Amino acid sequence: MRINGKGLVDRSTPLTFTFDGHSVDAYAGDTVASALLAAEVKLVARSFKYHRPRGVMGAGSEEAGALITVGNGAGQDPNVRATMQEVYSGLETRSQNRWPSLNFDVLSLNDLASPFLSAGFYYKTFMWPKAFWEKLYEPVIRRAAGIGGLSGEHNPDSYEKAYAFCDFLVIGAGSAGLMAALTAGRAGADVILCDEDSIMGGRLNGETYDVGGATGQDWAASTVAELASMDNVRLMTRTTVTGAYDQGTFGALERVSHHLEDRGGRPVECFWRIAAKRSVLAAGSIERPVAFRNNDRPGIMTASAVRTYLNRYGVAPGKAVTVFANNDDAHRTARDLVEAGVHVAGVIDTRRDAPDGDGYEVYKGAEICNSEGRKALEAVTFRYPDGREDKLQTDCLAMSGGWNPSVHMTCHMNGRPVWNEGIQSFVPVDGTVPGMLTAGACNGVFSTHGALTQGIAAAQEALSDLGVKTAKADVPKAEDAPYRLKPLWAVEGKGRAWLDFQNDVTVKDVKLAAAENFRSVEHMKRYTTQGMAPDQGKNSNVAALAVLADATGRGIPETGTTTFRPPYVPVSIAAMGAGSQGIGFAPQRFTTSHKASVEAGAPMVEVGMWYRPSFFPAPGEKTWRQSCDREVNNVRNAVGVCDVSTLGKIDLQGPDVGEFLDFVYTNMFSTLKVGRTRYGLMLREDGTVMDDGTTARMGENHYVMTTTTAAAGPVMRHLEYVHQCLRPDLDVSMISVTEQWAQFAVAGPKSRELLNGLLAEEINSDSWPFMACGEALIQGVKGRLFRISFSGEHAYEVAVPSRYGDSLFRLLVSRAESMGGGAYGMEALNVLRIEKGHITHSEIHGRTNAFDIGFARMVSAKKDCIGKTMSERPGLVGDTREQLVGLKPIGVVKQLTAGAHLFEKGADPVRVNEQGYTTSVGFSPTLETYLGLGFLRNGRARHGEEIQMVDHLRGITTQCVVCDPVFIDPEGGRVRG
Amino acid sequence: MRIKCPHCGERDRREFYYVGDAVALDRPDPDAGDVVWDDYVHNRDNPAGVTRDLWYHESGCSTWIVVTRNTVTHEILKTELASKVKEAMA
Amino acid sequence: MRFSGWKVIKEGLSGNKGWGAHWRDAQPKPEYDAIIIGGGGHGLSTAYYLAKNHGLTNIAVVEKGYLGGGNVGRNTTIVRANYFLQGNSEFYSHSLKLWEGLEEDLNYNVMHSQRGLINLFHSDGQRDAFARRGNMMVNQGDDAILLDREGVRKHLPYLDFEQTRFPIFGGLYHPRGGTARHDAVAWGYARGASDRGVDLIQNCEVTDIDIEGGVVKGVQTTRGPIKAKKVGIVVAGRSGQVAAMAGRRLPIESHVLQAFVTEGLKPVIDHVVSFGMGHFYISQSDKGGLVFGGDLDFYASYAQRGNLPMKEHVMDAGMTLMPMIGKAKVLRSWGGIMDMTPDGSPFIDKMDGVDGLFIDCGWNYGGFKAVPASGWCMAHLMATDTHHEAAAKFRLDRTRTGVNILDEEGTGSQHNLH
């Protein structure tokens, strides 16, 4: 029911939205909750377990009753608090957790079965017959559980993430927060003020009392206006600070366009990371319900929510409102209602010394013990101090069990709040989040005057820490009423009295938990699920704790609390993961030949962050194998070109580089001659192979190292570590130049011929023997030439500054094609290296050492190096080790697969018989057979033995002969050719 | 979490790579024996409280840093260049 | 008291007044045959199997907080047997078999749900590594199926097969993998142990271990000294501190691992999905919350809470893999203290040089699924002084000798990389 003349909604802008398909009238400035209440829609939702009818219970983000789904189709948004969703024209909303309809919900039968659905009942049943759990019980439970639903389709909306920095972060823009921001802003500090509401002012917007000589609403508006005029203050409405993290980092969720009919390209939400030098928590407090029989019916709300709807939205949530209270504050609700002309059926105050009513009756010392009404509240039964019971016809109950400070954020870094007997609740301990102060109601100070005073004080203290002077500030005149209450958690009596409305946890459940020895508050929580619902116990924790304390004969402080953890309000995965949907998850790295490769029709595959060509299909080729075989043959018989720029390149300079490399490589590099390249093996300190690659000595004090593609980053980090942490005495400088150089392998018997057509100076076997390196002028471009080979052929790698990469690649490929060769991709590269027995990270996979791969001789005895000592541990050498071998099929089955296991001939393929595994396989067009590399126990001593390879997963068993891993040209004639 | 790089000032934790206990600076002699080496490579004091560990300003200036830090509160007490710490050990 | 559906109905009809304590809260006695330090999943299962398999009932579990308050109540509840190294394979296989009979054994519904686990791969190389793993699982007698892209699509049609940064090549499907209700596992073992006479002592912190002449004599606690002939340390992330009471440094670094749960949602994810490329794994609880996690925060920590970078990374991974979860809202995030070892595999062993002192630790972030077999094998070791064959390779000296290093990840001795 709308009340004329009340509220901040814009009566000049009427609009309509839908709820469950029905059109609802509203005004700009309404929330779905306020509009539904204005339209006298009481039943809004169904509860989680018993599917009980539920309505709007509060007016904030902690809403325990009215959770709805917003929107339709792929972007439907479940579990939205109707109290936070601002209306706009055309907004579509739906109720949840009901079937077939909100009014007629089949699973409301659960409510009748509630005696069998007590806390933890599922731990005691559904165990027989065993197979029924997955097939019957669990699917039924799963379908009944849950609240809202996802669409199941890809998220269609855009989200963002952002960073912000400030001197002083103010969390909450109620009276304390506004005053803190104003004080700091006037002092010139860099301030961010966040509030989750659409307008700032906090409780002031829901109350009628004055601040600084104006109404609270006006004072808030004018203060916000002053703040908005300051360049050093950033106001962030609709922004909930969600978590406090280390060194002044905060997470915050901004609801950017949930309230807009036309988002106009804006993201739906933005997740902020705010780094603040100092902060103040001014998050206010949350009014707590009272547990009594059937206290969950639609129409039963918190007393402050009723005031908020009346004063801020101009809506009376009922025609005859009853107030149930144990404190003075709730009487404001009755006064405001009466003043607005709404009938107050009565105020039932549990205190015998409760204040008298002015225009309404106060039942002192009485308590409500039951409610009636099917899908909406119709009456309440209350009990006089003498035990007599009476009934009030009422359609709205405004209840208040007192207030709980919103201490949540002070617990995010493991702080524990302490019990305050005066307010019968927990208050924060300063310093639990370093740099954060608390002010106002969240600190247990409930008067407006107190909040304003603490806001000023917090700003002054924070700014003084930062060396910023604040001017003396006057506290605006405001109410300073004492907070008087008598503790009341649960009204005695039969039936079910709700504590956690969302998870349907009642007083009985908590008592049952205690009886079953779930007496620790953590056990009670986990057993009953109290506090684990969407409100995370904001409405129920303190009362549940009090009930548990009572049931276990302990005081509340000794019973303890559970821990509030981030986020303060639920945060969508899309917001915290903004930007990562699709390809945004990781950077994409492209080589300079990428375009040419794509133009040539090469399928590009991910190799780490890089993309590399898989193969280059030629006309008429139908399978990748045809292309691969041709490319291998090209290299073996003519010349092939392959982009190897993704390999890491590290430039090392300085007089001590040789000594440094001797320490990081197992073999010697100080003895390497200028103009020569050497293959090196690098170990981790635990003796396992870390990486391999060639390093070229370009000058006396200048080396260029190559790493594998995958290890480029880790090796760079490792080299810096070895230098800075172990050998800072060495004069070495290094930098990654991977992206500065485009580098191409030119491999095959005609490689030199091809290159000589491009080089300023022709090369020959004397000027560029195997493993030679140096600078070279390539088509007039100063580049580098290395005579190294991964394919086992006479081969070179030619490097030019990246800007020449595209043109050089095209040139090399066209020349190669004219000579009967062409480009080759990863598939051919892999076959070539398997034929030659060269290892990759398939073999040096982090569990193999130099001994295993047959490179023990490469660990120089003449010097220490990283990993040397540990590689000599007894378990890492000897005939129990699995050693690198080659495998060739010799039986009927010719196929080899990688990831298969090796067994003795005829042995059962079971774990205890397992002797090794395959790591790399490929079909060799050169030898016209599958070839495999693998590790076999004591493998080097077993060359010539027949074994079986078993791949259960692909259904392949192949008889193989064990051989040397180098299948082609073991003497190395070709590479030297 | 924010860490003060001795070169770059306070930076977000995202810029840093973590490797573990700064005991890594104290590499034994090759012939120190298996117990000493096992201790160096594997065993850790693993304190619940103040520890010194090694971080690398990987997305920054490539500096290795010894961070004195509390593993219970995540308070950062001191940051130093690892190379300086190592030189001081010599 | 035996739990059953009939009992639930009977009690429901009579006001649920007949339910008793699930376990006894015991006061410490002056002396026990054996003490287990740590009332988490592993400690409680150790006590249970000591009593059940070995008839040792004069024993106590001492817990500094509340039972099941550590990692057993903080994990993402995944149960699987998909290891590929000799030593791990047989152990986790044994554990999965125990899981499969756990409800009957404990008469407690731990909601072990074999809904199937799919590990995704994104390249030929990853496929081959998973093939090796899957083949070992079959070698061991467990189940593994190699799915291609279309095979994955049939199970998980909601993944982003078109746009995602790391295209899905296929997956290794482990049908017997799944989840369980984590807290119930701790409570079920507690109840089973308590029923067999084991004393469960909460709010009792061990402050020292008494050792005389190389023989363990008992422990000092905040509730007084307790004598014992055998003491088992089963304290996960706190292993470093407790082992230090016996003068021992361990190859363990404690790290924080975060986990997340969303608000309740109608069923949308039926499997456990693991996305190694993004360090992301997810399932949906029976209550409807999406339960998911990622990698360590990467710095040593005892804080049981993490920071934003890893939270965001986990959400990032979820969004690239399955953007249909975007509108799910994270309700809560928390952290556990992981006892990370240099090879990523655990220890169940005697403590060198102290007779009667045993340790079970180093579960990294895979401890939950190990709970049954860990207790089984630790109980075997404590009762018989010999290693159980399924855990024979979980030796403390393997880091020194290099014998049977169990590095499934292949990342080496940097503790946090496993």
UniProtKB/TrEMBL annotation, chain A:
Residues 594-863 form the GCVT N-terminal domain. PANTHER family: AMINOMETHYLTRANSFERASE, AMINOMETHYLTRANSFERASE, MITOCHONDRIAL. InterPro entries: 2Fe-2S-bd_N, BFD-like_2Fe2S-bd_dom_sf, FAD/NAD-bd_sf, GcvT/YgfZ/DmdA, GcvT/YgfZ_C, GcvT_C, GCVT_N, Sarcosine_oxidase_asu. It comes from Shimia gijangensis. GO terms for biological process: tetrahydrofolate metabolic process. Keywords: Oxidoreductase. One of its GO terms (molecular function) is sarcosine oxidase activity. Residues 494-579 form the SoxA A3 domain. It holds the Pfam family GCV_T_C. Residues 883-969 form the Aminomethyltransferase C-terminal domain. Belongs to the GcvT family. This is Sarcosine oxidase subunit alpha. The lineage of its organism: Bacteria, Pseudomonadati, Pseudomonadota, Alphaproteobacteria, Rhodobacterales.
From TrEMBL, chain B:
GO terms for molecular function: sarcosine oxidase activity. The lineage of its organism: Bacteria, Pseudomonadati, Pseudomonadota, Alphaproteobacteria, Rhodobacterales. Pfam families: SoxD. InterPro entries: SoxD (IPR006279), SoxD_sf (IPR038561). It comes from the Bacteria. Coiled coil: none annotated. This is Sarcosine oxidase subunit delta. GO terms for biological process: tetrahydrofolate metabolic process.
TrEMBL record, chain C:
Its cofactor is FAD; FMN. Pfam families: DAO (PF01266). Keywords: Cytoplasm, FAD, Flavoprotein, FMN, Nucleotide-binding, Oxidoreductase. SUPFAM superfamilies: FAD-linked reductases, C-terminal domain (SSF54373), FAD/NAD(P)-binding domain (SSF51905). It is found in: Cytoplasm. Transmembrane segments: none annotated. The keyword Chloroplast does not apply. Its EC number is 1.5.3.24. GO terms for cellular component: cytoplasm. Residues 35-78 form the Rhodanese domain. The keyword Cytoplasm applies. Its main location: cytoplasm. It comes from the Bacteria. One of its GO terms (biological process) is tetrahydrofolate metabolic process. GO terms for molecular function: nucleotide binding; sarcosine oxidase activity. It catalyses: sarcosine + O2 + H2O = formaldehyde + glycine + H2O2; sarcosine + (6S)-5,6,7,8-tetrahydrofolate + O2 = (6R)-5,10-methylene-5,6,7,8-tetrahydrofolate + glycine + H2O2. Belongs to the SoxB family. This is Sarcosine oxidase subunit beta. It comes from Shimia gijangensis.
